[in-house]
Design goal:
The chain has two domains: about 5-150 and about 240-415, Peroxisomal Thiolase, Chain A, domain 1; about 430-505, OB fold (Dihydrolipoamide Acetyltransferase, E2P). Helices cover about 30% and strands about 20% of the residues. The chain has helices spanning about 25-40, 70-75, 90-105, 120-130, 155-160, 165-180, 185-205, 215-220, 255-260, 290-305, 320-330, 360-370, 410-415, 475-480, and strands at about 5-15, 55-60, 80-85, 110-120, 230, 235, 245-255, 270-280, 310-315, 375-385, 390-395, 430-440, 445-455, 465-470, 490-495, 500-505. The strands form three sheets. Strands 3-2-4-7-1-8-11-10-9 form a nine-stranded mixed β-sheet, sandwiched between helices.
Length: about 500
C-alpha cells in the first residue's frame, strides 16, 4: 500500500480538570483544549486544523449546545471540515478510528479529528448553585448530522422494567457469571474487589485519573456509608464515574499527508487490526454470562491484524463495570492469573468515564504507551450500551506490512444476526425460574427494588419463554436475595397494572 493511503494516528490530547467551580470549563471548552493539545502533540500549529476535511464529535451525555460539531469547528478554525455527531455508545471512539482508517485507505478522507468531552462535574455544581442548566449554548446554523443512526439500545418494555439502568443490567450479567462459575456470593464479591484493586494501582499513577487513589480489594468489595451498593453486587467503587470534567481528541491521517504536514515519524501509530460487532436485544440474547458479539469481535480483531492475545503487551479492556472486564478477559482467552494489567488508564470507575468518550482517552493513553515502548502492541476494546455494541483496535509503532484494510463488519455480523433470538414474552403468566437478577439500592444503602430475568419453565428448556419482571419491594425479601444465589429459584410471574411481577415461592 502506498503511503498515500496508509492510516496513522499522529496526535492525541487529553484534559482532566479536577479543580472546578461554576465558572470552570464547559464541554466545548474541554474539547477545544483537547483538540489543541492533539495538534501540539503532533507537532503542528493550531492553524493547521483549518485543513481538516472531517471532524467527528462523540455525543456527550449532556449535549451542552445545539450543534457541538459546528461549535467546535468554529472554535478551532475547521469550518471547511465535514462535521458529524457520533451517537450514544461507548464503542464510538474505537469505531471512528476503524471506520475512518478505512476512509483514508479508500481515499475518501485525508485529515480527520475526533473529539469528545463531559463537564458533568461543573454542570452539577452550576445546577446546585443556581437551579438553572449551564449557560453553554452557542450559535448554530441547524441541527447536527449523525454519522450513524442514533437508535435506542433497549426497548420500551426493557426500559420500563429498569433494564435501561446500566448498573442494574451489568449487575445482572455479573450474577449470571457468578452462578456459571459456581462461586459463592462471598467468594465472588472478593474476586470483584481484587479485579478492580489492580485498576486502582494504575489510576494512582495516572496524572489524568479522576481518582488517583490506590484501594484494597476489601475496600472496593465491602459496602459502607461511603461505598454503598448501587445495584447488587456492585458497590459505588465498581461503577463507572461520569460526574467528571474530562476530554480527549485524536488526529488521524495518512502517512503521506503526515509527511506533508512535517509530522515526525516517531509520532506515527499504526492500526494493525480492528473489528466492530453488534449484540442482540437484551431479552433476545443467548445468555447473560457471555457475549457472542464480543467473541466474534475478539476473533476478528486478531484475524485482521494477524496477531494473537499473547502478542499484546498493553491492554485496555472497557471497564464500565467488573463484568465487562472479566467477560473480556475470558473471551480473549486470558487466565485470572495473567500478570498483564487489563487497563492502562485505571478504568472508568477510577480514571473517570467521560460518557461515550472514555475510549478516546484510552486510545490516547495507548498511543502514548506504545510510542514509549516502541515495537510493542496494544489492544483497546470498547463497549456501548448493555454489551450492545463492540469495537476493538490494535496499535503499534510497527508499520503495517503490505496493505491495510478493514474487513467489512457486515461480513461477520451476519453470523451473529442469523442466530435466532431467544424467545421472550412481554406478558408472562405462570411459574417461572430465575435466570439472573439484581437488587437496586437507594442512596441510604437500603434495597429498593428487585429485577428478575427469568424463564417460563426450566432454564435448560430452549422453548421456555424469557421474561423480565420486578420483585415485590419487601425489604426483607430483597435483602435475602443478596445473601444467597437465587438463580434457578422458582416463583410466579404475572402481569401487573404497570409492570410484570415476580413472586418468590
Amino acid at each position: 500500500m502506498s503511503e498515500k493511503n496508509m492510516p496513522v494516528l499522529v496526535g492525541v490530547g487529553q484534559v482532566t480538570e479536577r479543580e472546578f467551580d461554576v465558572d470552570s470549563s464547559s464541554v466545548l471548552d474541554l474539547m477545544e483544549q483537547a483538540a489543541f493539545k492533539a495538534a501540539e502533540d503532533a507537532g503542528i500549529s493550531k492553524a493547521s486544523l483549518a485543513d481538516l476535511d472531517t471532524l467527528v464529535i462523540v455525543k456527550s451525555f449532556r449535549e451542552s449546545t445545539r450543534n457541538s460539531p459546528e461549535a467546535l469547528a468554529n472554535r478551532i478554525g475547521a469550518n471547511r471540515a465535514t462535521q458529524w455527531l457520533m451517537p450514544n455508545g461507548g464503542n464510538g471512539p474505537q469505531y471512528l478510528v476503524n471506520r475512518f482508517g478505512e476512509a483514508i485507505t479508500n481515499g475518501e478522507s485525508q485529515f480527520v479529528m475526533f473529539a469528545g468531552a463531559e463537564a458533568m462535574a461543573t454542570a452539577r455544581k452550576i445546577v446546585k448553585a443556581t437551579g438553572e442548566q449551564p449557560p453553554w449554548q452557542e450559535a448554530a446554523s441547524g441541527d447536527p448530522s449523525y454519522l450513524v443512526e442514533d437508535v435506542e439500545l433497549s426497548t420500551a418494555h426493557e426500559q420500563q422494567h429498569g433494564l435501561w439502568l446500566a448498573p442494574g443490567f451489568y449487575a445482572m450479567s455479573e450474577n449470571a457469571r457468578r452462578h456459571q462459575l459456581g462461586h459463592s456470593v462471598e467468594e465472588h464479591q472478593l474476586e470483584l474487589g481484587k479485579l478492580f484493586a489492580r485498576f486502582t494501582e494504575v489510576a494512582a499513577k495516572n496524572p489524568h485519573a479522576w481518582y488517583p487513589v490506590q484501594r484494597s480489594a476489601a475496600e472496593i468489595a465491602t459496602a459502607t456509608g461511603t461505598n454503598r451498593y448501587v445495584a447488587w453486587p456492585y458497590t459505588k467503587y465498581m461503577n463507572a464515574m461520569n460526574q467528571i470534567n474530562q476530554s480527549a481528541a485524536l488526529l488521524l491521517t495518512s502517512v503521506e499527508h503526515a509527511r506533508k504536514l512535517g509530522i515526525s515519524e516517531d509520532k506515527f501509530i499504526y492500526l494493525h487490526g480492528c473489528s466492530d460487532t453488534r449484540e442482540k436485544s437484551i431479552l433476545g440474547r443467548k445468555n447473560y454470562y457471555s457475549s457472542e458479539a464480543m467473541r466474534v469481535m475478539a476473533e476478528q480483531v486478531f484475524a485482521s491484524g494477524d496477531l494473537g492475545i499473547d502478542d499484546m503487551k498493553h491492554i485496555d479492556f472497557y471497564s464500565c463495570f467488573p463484568s465487562a472486564v472479566a467477560m473480556a478477559r475470558d473471551t480473549f482467552g486470558m487466565s485470572v492469573e495473567d500478570p498483564r494489567q487489563l487497563t492502562i488508564t485505571g478504568g472508568l470507575p477510577f480514571h473517570g468515564g467521560a460518557g461515550n468518550n472514555y475510549v478516546m482517552n484510552s486510545i490516547a493513553a495507548m498511543v502514548e504507551k506504545v510510542r514509549v515502548d516502541r515495537g510493542s502492541y496494544g489492544l483497546v476494546t470498547a463497549n456501548g450500551g448493555y454489551f450492545s455494541k463492540h469495537a476493538a483496535g490494535i496499535y503499534s509503532t510497527n508499520p503495517v506490512e503490505g496493505d491495510w484494510s478493514r474487513t467489512d463488519p457486515a461480513s461477520y455480523q451476519k453470523v451473529l444476526d442469523d442466530v435466532p433470538d431467544t424467545l421472550f414474552t412481554e406478558s408472562p403468566n405462570g411459574e417461572g425460574t430465575i435466570e439472573t437478577y439484581t437488587v437496586l439500592y437507594g442512596r441510604d444503602n437500603k434495597p429498593q427494588q428487585g429485577v428478575v430475568i427469568g424463564r417460563l419453565g426450566e432454564l435448560d428448556d430452549p422453548k421456555a419463554e424469557r421474561f423480565v419482571a420486578m420483585v415485590d419491594d419487601d425489604s426483607n425479601v430483597l435483602e435475602g436475595m443478596t445473601h444467597v444465589d437465587m438463580i434457578g429459584s422458582k416463583g410466579v410471574a404475572s402481569i401487573g397494572d404497570d409492570l410484570n411481577k415476580f413472586s418468590l415461592k
